[in-house]
Amino acid sequence: MNLKKVVTWLVVAFVVFYVIQAPEQSAELVRNAGEALGDAASSLAQFVGSLV
Structural domain tally of the chain? Predict the structure, then answer.
């Protein structure tokens, strides 16, 4: 088994463990990440729109 597979499985296991141990904090983290991606997409759209 190569190192990349081992690291991938360790990351997946950690995420599952974190979600099980702290579901509220996990949900907040995902919500914040979604908001950040939405803000970034909005800013990018505004930038592209201002080029025209």
Answer: 1
